[in-house]
Amino acid sequence: MNGTTAGVHKSAGRITTVIVLVVALVAAGFTRHVAERQRGTAGPTQAQQGQNLSNMNSFALALLLGGLRGPLVMILWTSSEAQKSEKNLEDFDTKVEWIRMLQPEFDTVHIFQIWNKAYNISVQMASNANKYITILDAIEYAKDVDRERPNNINILYQIGSVYFDKLGGASEKEYYRKRVREESLPHKTDAKIKRNDPGWRPMMMDSLLDAKGMVLPDKLEPKFPRPADLPADSDWNDGSELQYLAKYQPYSYGLSPQAIGFNYFKRSQVLQAVGKQRHAQVSDLVIDSRPGLSLRMWGEEEIERGRNVELKAFGKEIPTERVDKELPTADIALSTPPTAKDIEEALFSYAQAVKVEEDALHSYEVHLQKYAINRSTYEFHVEHIKALIPLAKGDHDYLAAQLATGAERDKLIASATENYQKAKQQAQYMLVRYHIDDQLVPELFPPGITRMTSEKLDPKDYASILEKNKQLMRRPGVFDQYAEDRVEYERYEKRAETRLQQLAKK
Question: Which pLDDT does position 37 carry in this prediction?
Answer without folding.
Answer: 55
